[in-house]
């Protein structure tokens, strides 16, 4: 099996408790003056609302999660070979945890994983010779 290529994705997702959601959206939009747009959340059943924020070359997704008590940050990673990547990660005890947020209607192959500190990453397969595609919204991805 070949060694998989890993690279950072363009999507970051901030999972925000419902009680802090409006103030967080206002912070990025009104205080910092970033371009903030509300988006569709039909693909992610655990997210009740989402806004996208242009964050330099990245997109920061502000996801309202009604049953969260504290915020969480999720990241996106691309690989050229999802099977080889999953195998390599399994060798060090990192296994898919796709139950964290079921993703519906995706055309790409993905897995959710957690790093050793528990930070969630969307591991998405994309050819290494191409720039990473804009990931389906999850990383809410990445």
Description:
The protein has helices at 18-31, 82-91; strands at residues 6-17, 36-39, 49-55, 58-65, 72-79, 110-114, 120-125. A hairpin with a 5-residue loop joins strand 6 and strand 7 (120-125). The radius of gyration is 15 Å and the shape is elongated. Residues 129-133 and 138-142 have low confidence and may be disordered. Strands 2-3-4-1-5-7-6 form a seven-stranded mixed β-sheet. It has a single domain (6-125), classed as 2,3-Dihydroxybiphenyl 1,2-Dioxygenase, domain 1 (Roll), CATH 3.10.180.10. With 142 residues, the protein is of the alpha/beta class. It is built from two helices and seven strands, in the order E-H-E-E-E-E-H-E-E.
Summarize the structure.
This is VOC domain-containing protein. The chain has two helices and seven strands, in the order βαββββαββ.
Multimeric status of the protein = single chain
> For the residues shown, what is the average pLDDT?
88
| Class by alpha and beta content | alpha/beta
Provide the spatial order of strands within the biggest beta sheet: 2-3-4-1-5-7-6
- Number of structural units classed as domains: 1
For the record, the CATH architecture stands as Roll
Order of helices and strands: EHEEEEHEE
Count of DSSP-assigned helices:
2
Main sheet record = 7 strands, mixed
